[in-house]
Amino acid sequence: MTPREAHQLASEGAATIVDIRTRPEWEFVGHIEDTPLIEWKSYGSSRPNPDFVDKLAARFAKDEAILLICRSGIRSRDAATAAAQAGFTRVYNVLEGFEGDQDEEGRRGSLGGWRHAGLPWTQY
Fold it and tell me: What is the Rg, in whole angstroms, of the alpha carbon atoms belonging to the chain?
């Protein structure tokens, strides 16, 4: 689903957005306010967090609508697949992620994503 669709569902209380980026991304790049962080991969690691599904299960019922967001939609797709394989029935990937794809100069933020869509976010 698109960032705008995710924002609409979350605003209506029909779903919860979960940020699965690393803590440094969440803190320094910015994040959606009041959105929980459950890292899919820790900073500096190329392997999925072995506790990801358990942390998701500790916070959400397996039939709750959960919208996973990462930087560009790739990690959240993989995390959604893992969650579905663990029995979560309403877990979805937010396409484009928080920052979107890279532009011609290799920078993010101008080609899709939550921030580019003008949706609410904050930065420390």
Answer: 13
Burial label for 20, CB within 10 Å (0-12, 13-18, 19+), is: buried
- Stated pTM of the model: 0.93
Residue type, 101: D
Residues ≥6 apart with Cβ < 8 Å to 86: 53, 56, 57
67: CB partners within 8 A, 6+ apart: 1, 6, 9, 10, 15, 16, 17, 18, 91, 92, 93, 94
pLDDT tens column, 43-83: 988 899 999 999 999 999 999 999 999 999 999 999 999 99
> CATH number of the domain at 3-93, please?
3.40.250.10
- Give the Cα separation of 50 and 2 in Å (integer): 27
C-alpha 19/C-alpha 37 separation (Å) is: 5
Domain boundaries, the chain: 3-93
